[in-house]
Amino acid sequence: MSSPENIFFDLRDLAALGEDAIIGKTVRIRKPGRCRIGAHSIIDDFSYISCGITVGRFTHIGAQAIMIGGEAHITVGDFVNIAPGCRLIASSHDFLEGGLCGPTIPEAFSTPAITADIHVADHVLLGTGTVVLPGCRLPEGLATGAMTLITPALKLEPWTCYLGIPARPFKLRNSARILETAGQLNAAIP
Which of 22, 111, 157, 159 is placed for a possible disulfide with 42 were both Cys, Cβ 3.0 to 4.6 Å? Predict the structure, then answer.
């Protein structure tokens, strides 16, 4: 464990922290006992996590990433890169049904929550500012350009780059080369 002390929680309270994983000093994890961080992964400073999360190996979560969801869980695979400013939102309110919204509102007066786990498969790359909504399953090798919106209604294909609001397919990625390089790294660093 080669991680600096964190100002918000004790790193020993994490459910798991893999070999050579780094958690920035100013990363805020509200429920560290529900968080598992894989070997050789990094979470950059000023990121905020308020749900359960499992992060694979060789994964990077950039500065100011936000992952919220209360009781929901976000699973992030191996070799994933979540660029700075991305938002993975596993729980939100239904803004159309009436009632009040926000954590300060007693449940009896609150709108219903939309809560669903998010799954990010291996080799996913999320461009800066990408937003992922509750219940999304991002397939292996998916990539997004900056400011892309991923909703659960989209049919997402593996190894495809998506752009826009809402996301639409742009171009295929070189899956053979990416998988070959990942295999080489896995062989070199077990």
Answer: 22
